[in-house]
Design goal:
single chain, about 25% helix, binds flavin-adenine dinucleotide, four-stranded mixed β-sheet
């Protein structure tokens, strides 16, 4: 069932909008799981100014949700009411500055930022090459891998809040912890400044190649959302899931990966409900088996049909 079309009303509030604003756009293809219903309205701002203009002038009763590369996301089958914002071209720059600093737009893929740093002989950002999201997602999730985390390299994040105000956040103001950022949810990150250090381009390329081959050997890379649950304190999520007998468990078209059992995969015809139900089933079984309450790392947005 499509949502009522709110685009004409929205456009009346923001007549000078430059980015695309579309009703009932399917979101499945914007996520790694390839499932989920539509956005009631999808907005792709042209640039920072367009985003700020929209947020300042939109009707306040319309919910706003931002998505990145959808690599840590389940969009529920009923879709997402309100406006979903997806940053594109206007947020897709990466520049290398003095003192081994890298400035990146929030829509830039992490791997592209890692590559730009590598080419410039800047070490410290190679871990980003293993995370298949955008810089916006890395900021919100404090994305990390192979000993590095976003919080280790961030100097400043830039964004726009729900009222359309430009905001800047120092590392301390980001309130980072494990896969978490404390900045209020209404803030949409538009870019970041990272601090690297002098390195050797060939050595960094070798480090990135090693990250790639380790991941290819240990993780599914298709129709998944990466780690489903956060590692519980002092333990590994995959271990408690395995001990609860959930490796390979299937619900509808969704399966706990045989390769890495903290990953759920869409076998091809899963619904978002299959994937979420599978995740909840795993949580229940783990709780019953070991007493551990797993916490979702994957963000779930939208409504059930
Ligand atoms: C195969 C695979 C491997 C993975 N490996 C890792 C790993 O090693 N380490 C790791 O940390 N993660 C990993 N992930 C998870 C995922 O890649 C990260 O969480 C990533 O940072 C999410 O970025 P995204 O752009 O895809 O965000 P999305 O999945 O689109 O969104 C995730 C969250 O970020 C928010 N968000 C996105 N963009 C913005 C923005 N511009 N401003 C504010 N909020 C925003 C969304 O609202 C949502 O809450 C993996 C995922 C997959 C599929």
């Amino acid at each position: 069932m499509p949502f009522p079309d709110i685009v004409p009303d929205l456009k009346a509030h923001v007549p000078e909008l430059r980015g695309r604003l579309l009703a009932n756009q399917s979101l499945g293809e914007f996520t790694w799981f390839r499932v989920g219903g539509p956005a009631q309205a999808l907005f792709m701002p042209e640039d920072d100014d367009d985003l700020a203009y929209f947020l300042r002038n939109r009707p306040r009763d319309v919910a706003v949700t931002v998505i990145g590369a959808g690599s840590n996301l389940i969009v529920r089958d009923g879709g997402v009411p309100g406006v979903v914002i997806r940053l594109g071209r206007g947020f897709n720059e990466v520049t290398v500055e003095d003192d081994h600093r890298v400035v990146a737009g929030a829509a830039m893929l992490d791997v592209m930022v890692a590559r730009a740093a590598q080419k410039a002989g800047i070490a410290g950002l190679a871990f980003l090459s293993g995370i298949p999201g955008t810089i916006g997602g890395a900021l919100r999730m404090n994305g990390g891998a192979y000993g590095g985390e976003t919080k280790d390299i961030l100097i400043e994040a830039r964004g726009v809040d729900g009222e359309g105000n430009r905001r800047r956040f120092s590392n301390a103001e980001m309130g980072f912890s494990y896969r978490h950022c404390g900045v209020p949810e209404d803030v949409i990150f538009t870019g970041a400044v990272f601090q690297g250090r002098a390195g050797d381009a060939d050595a960094i390329a070798a480090e990135m190649a090693e990250i790639k081959s380790k991941r290819e050997a240990s993780q599914p890379r298709n129709r998944t959302g990466g780690s489903t649950f956060k590692n519980p304190p002092g333990n590994n999520a995959w271990k408690v899931i395995d001990e609860a007998g959930c490796r390979g468990l299937i619900v509808g078209g969704a399966q706990v990966s045989e390769l890495h059992c903290n990953f759920l995969i869409n076998l091809g015809n899963a619904t978002a409900a299959d994937i979420e139900t599978l995740g909840e089933t795993v949580r229940e079984r783990v709780k019953a088996q070991s007493g551990v309450a797993l916490e979702w790392e994957i963000k779930r947005i939208g409504i059930r049909p």
